[in-house]
Structure formats: C-alpha cells, structure tokens
Design brief:
Layout (H helix, E strand, L loop, with lengths): L11 E5 L2 E2 L5 E5 L2 E5 L7 E9 L4 E10 L10 H6 L9 H18 L22 E9 L2 E7 L6 E3 L8 H16 L14 E8 L6 E7 L7 H11 L3 E8 L11 E7 L2 E6 L2 E6 L8 H15 L6 E5 L5 H7 L4 E6 L2 H13 L5 E5 L2 H10 L6 E4 L8 H10 L3 E6 L2 H13 L2 E3 L4 E3 L9 E8 L1
Parallel strand pairs: 4-6, 11-12, 16-17, 16-19, 17-18, 19-20
Antiparallel strand pairs: 1-5, 2-3, 3-4, 5-6, 7-8, 7-10, 8-9, 10-11, 12-13, 14-15, 20-23, 21-23, 22-23
The structure holds S-adenosylmethionine.
C-alpha cells in the first residue's frame, strides 16, 4: 500500500532540530514524521535535503545552518564526520556529558521509571587522544597501500593520519608501519576480490607502561618479507615489545582471525590499572580509555560495599581487571569469560600480582552462573560488565536464584541496561543508588555507566 509521506527524497526544507538520537544525529519533525540529520544540533535551524525516506522516518543532509547552536564547536573537519571516528566532535564537551546523562534518564522514563536518578556524567579534563588501542583498515588507495578509516556505512577507505581520539604515539606507529609495508611492497587487502595480504593494523599501547603491541592482520598465512618488516618496525618504534601476525582468511567484517603468530618479542604487553599489573594479549578485551577506567572501576569497587568477607562473582571478567582489583577487598572472587586468551591472561595476572583468592573459568557467563548456582556458591556481590547486547535472561535467572545482596552493573549500552534492570526488578532487585555515567568514549555517543541493584 502506498503511504503518503510528508517529505520526499531530494526535497530541501527548513526545519528546527529538537533532539539528538542515541547515535548523535539531530532530529527534526515534519507532521510528527522524524528526519534524522547528521551534524545537526538541538535548537539549530537548518535547511535539510532529504536523502532517504522510509515508512516511519527519513534521513537528511545539512544544506545550510541558518541558526547555529551556542554549543557548536569547531569540528576537526569533514573526514572525521564522514568516517564516524568522532561523531559528536561538533558538540561542546560539557554538552556531550549532559547528553549522555539525559539519554539514560530518558530511557528509564520511557518505561515509566521516572524516579531513577542519573548523576552528571564524569568526564575527562582532556577529552581527546585517549584511546589506547587502534584497529585501522588497510586498503589500496590511488595505487598505494593506505591506512585510514571507512566512510560511514561503506567500505570506502578515507586516508587519515591523525585520528584525534587515539594516543598520538599510536597514530605515529600506524604511519611508521604503513610506510614499512609500502617499502617492502606488501599488498593491501581487496575485499571485493578477496585478494592482497594486509587487512588491518592493530596497535595497543600501555598508558602507564608505554609498552606497544603491533598486530598485522593478514588474509594469507604467509607474510612476505616478514623478517625485515619486523626488524624495521622494532628499529623505528623502540616502545614495541610485541609484534604479532594475526591470520584472518575469512570473508568477514570481523577484524581478528583465530591464529596469532608472535613474530617478535612477547605475546602480551603489560599495563597498570589502580596499581595492579595486567598482561594483555591481542584477542583479549581491555578497556580503551585507561584514565576513565580507573574512575569506573573505583566506583564499582565502592558500590560493591566490600569489607573483606565477601564472595564476589565477576561475570564477563575479561583479563581479570575488575576481579583482581576486587579480590584485594573480598574473601573470594570468581571470574568468567568466553575468550580463552582473556582467561589465560586473567590467571597469569592473578599470579603476577600475587593474588590467590581469585578463580577464573573459561565458559559463557550464563552457563558458568548456572553451574555455580548448582554448586551452591552464594555470592554476596555479582558484578557484570557485559558487551553491548547486555545480559542473557538465563544469566539473570541464575543470578537472582543465588540471591546476592548486590549486583553492580557496568553497562556500555543504556538500552540493554534498562531492559536488564527491569528483568532484575521482576526477580526482586531494585536500583539502590543513583546511576553514575562515566565518559569512556568522548566525542562519540557511546555511554558507559555504573548501576547498583539491591535485593528488596
Ligand atoms: C565489556 S568487556 C568487559 C571486560 C572486563 N570486565 C573489563 O573491564 O576489562 C565484556 C567481556 O565479555 C566477554 N564476553 C562476551 N560474551 C560473553 C559471554 N556470553 N560469556 C562470558 N563472557 C563473555 C568478552 O570476551 C569481554 O571480555
């Protein structure tokens, strides 16, 4: 059935921006029909060109900003917007922090939990150059092996050397590695023909340790001239303690493949968090904003209310960062993660820090939780830090059955947080303190927060 829409593709019209979506796009409405517009801020009056219409909403591009928001700041340039590296960079930082606070509050209000208090977001003094990890695609651009970022919603590589939100030492390393790969005529990955060698360069750098890991992700098992390439990388970048070839032969958007060959140095780098040392391997998760992570973890520790006598479960433990920090204030900690390298690192990290009251299992959190419940483990506190999709319902069921006094929920996605809080609510848990957002991802719309739930 043909639907009459209030706007048509190609139309240019004047609108006022009312709001920002969770992705940081401006929202205007024509007869209640929303148009989502990049690089448009609330209260701005703009001329928008409609680029796409669907039954329920449209997308548009800014043609001209007629009235500029007082909160608009000088962005770094078009490429940064087009690639989505820093989609909120045009919004004053203090407003970004408010935006994140309000996003969480609004999502709770939508499910009629208006009484949930959300505190102002804890931000950074310098909200740029914070990322300790980069994964940049490598493609052939104008006949040359090139590094950069994909244009949004495409696989068109835009060459970039200054990534703005990454540690500048990492930006420098990417250019150095790119030039060495060019010098030895390595070929860039071609997705369309599934040919060429180098798919991605990944760099990790310890914030305190300055140890650097370079991961060269290849489509092929063989990396031509590997010896000289590695020698030159080590000579040019003295901080490098680990060079790894990761082999990913699949036709996939997943960045890392299953095979990691250490080409030089160690398989891990070390870094510190809250005074503990952690070994981190290529496939393991490690928080990307170390300065904010310390604030986040400290909050989680405080909210857990540990006195030294508690049993704690840290589900989605990664390399054991939260588990081991909490183990210093608890009787026993159990951690679980689904990635084998992360659990190897977690066990190694317990030894490294002389911590003997933390036990790690390799499993899915939902299965481990069910087993621990069967084994009669009675945690006082359950800490969860799941990926964006949030918690599995079976996990929540087992957690509630175990009856911990507190659940500390570290969330990187407010939508799934809200859903999971409701599910905990159905099983006798309520929010016990104001939710605290911590800005782990300045210049982007991503929102991290800590929520504490207590048994009714
Ligand atoms: C957001 S990270 C948190 C890691 C850790 N807490 C930290 O702060 O470094 C989420 C972790 O969940 C793990 N993960 C994803 N799905 C899982 C599952 N079903 N069961 C257990 N762990 C899972 C990932 O490997 C990753 O280490």
């Amino acid at each position: 059935m043909k639907v009459d829409l209030p706007v048509y593709k190609g139309e240019v019209l004047d609108v006022t921006i009312m709001d920002l979506t969770y992705q940081g796009m401006g929202v205007a409405k024509v007869d209640n029909y929303p148009i989502f517009i990049e690089n448009a801020l609330p209260e701005e009056k703009i001329s928008v060109k409609v680029t796409k219409t669907t039954k329920n909403f449209a997308f548009g591009d800014v043609e001209k900003i007629q009235q500029v928001s007082p909160h608009r700041v000088n962005p770094k340039g078009r490429v940064y917007r087009q690639t989505g590296i820093a989609p909120l960079q045009h919004l004053e930082y203090s407003e970004q922090l408010k935006f994140k606070q309000h996003q969480i509050a609004e999502l709770f209000a939508k499910i009629h939990m208006d009484d949930v208090e959300v505190l102002p977001t804890i931000g950074m003094a310098n909200p740029t150059q914070y990322r300790n990890k980069a994964q940049v695609p490598v493609r052939q651009v104008q006949g040359k092996l090139t590094t950069g970022f994909f244009k949004k919603n495409s696989h068109q590589l835009m060459p970039i050397e200054d990534y703005y939100i990454q540690d500048p030492a990492i930006d420098h390393a990417i250019v150095v590695v790119r030039d060495i790969l060019r010098k030895y005529h390595e070929t860039a990955f071609d997705e369309f023909h599934h040919s060429g060698t180098i798919r991605t360069i990944m760099v990790r750098r310890g914030y305190y340790s300055h140890e650097m890991m370079i991961v060269i992700v290849t489509r092929t098992k063989h990396l031509p001239m590997a010896d000289v390439v590695v020698q030159e990388i080590q000579a040019a970048l003295p901080e490098v303690v680990s060079v790894i070839q990761n082999v990913n032969q699949k036709r996939t958007n997943v960045i890392l493949g299953p095979v990691n060959n250490v080409l030089a140095g160690k398989s891990t780098i070390n870094d510190q968090l809250l005074g503990l040392t952690f070994a981190i391997s290529a496939p393991s998760f490690y928080q990307i904003n170390p300065q904010q992570t310390e604030k986040l973890y400290q909050l989680a520790i405080d909210q857990a209310g540990l006195t030294g006598n508690e049993t704690v479960i840290d589900a989605y433990s990664g390399i054991g960062t939260i588990s081991l920090t909490m183990a210093q204030h608890a009787k026993q900690v159990y951690g679980v993660d689904i990635v084998p390298a992360a659990i190897d690192n977690a066990r190694q990290n317990a030894d490294k820090n002389g911590i003997t009251n933390a036990k790690f299992v390799l499993d899915s959190a939902e299965k481990a939780m069910a087993k621990w419940a069967e084994d009669g483990i009675k945690p006082d506190v359950v800490v969860v830090d799941p990926p964006r999709k949030g918690l599995d319902e079976a996990f929540i069921e087992s957690a509630a059955q175990m009856g911990p006094k507190r659940v500390v929920y570290i969330s990187c996605n407010p939508s799934t947080l809200v859903r999971d809080v409701q599910r905990f609510g159905e099983r006798g848990y309520h929010i016990a303190a104001p939710i605290q957002p911590v800005d782990q991802f300045p210049q982007t719309p991503h929102i991290e927060s800590v929520t504490v739930l207590e048994k009714d």
